[in-house]
Amino acid sequence: MGDVGGQKTLRSYWRNYFEKTDALIWVVDATDRLRVDDCREELAGLLLEEVGADTLKRLMGASLLVFANKTDVGGCMTREEIQEGLQLDAIKTHKWTIVSCSAITGDNLKEGLEWVVQDAKERLFLY
């Protein structure tokens, strides 16, 4: 597990972390409607637009957990708004889910990670 950060200066290094990746956890700030388009474009760049590129091959089949962070803040985006904003229904190459959470309180962090483990367990052969 690694946190590769979302700053633009770090994005070119993301592909270095994807070898043998079973799950991708994408964290969205549910209070930041202005950046949801940027967030969608970056995610699409990883999963949808690089068909045939090494990055996609390394992420092939990885579970996608979208943590909607800051959902404890009034006026945040709903699950449906995030799903639409990220155009998750267009993602056919990965099983995905959205889990509302709060990094401050820890709400639903365990549930999201349990989903990742269960989804990966269903796909991987355990000996």
From TrEMBL:
Q: Which UniProt keywords apply?
A: GTP-binding, Nucleotide-binding
Q: Which organism is it from?
A: Glutinoglossum americanum
- Protein name listed in UniProt: ADP-ribosylation factor-like protein 2
Which InterPro entries is this protein grouped with? ARL2/3, P-loop_NTPase, Small_GTPase_ARF/SAR
Under the heading PROSITE patterns, the entry gives:
ARF (PS51417)
Q: Where does the record place a coiled coil?
A: none
Q: Pfam family example for this protein?
A: Arf
TM ranges are: none
Q: Which residues bind GTP?
A: 6, 69-72
- GO molecular-function annotation terms? GTP binding; GTPase activity
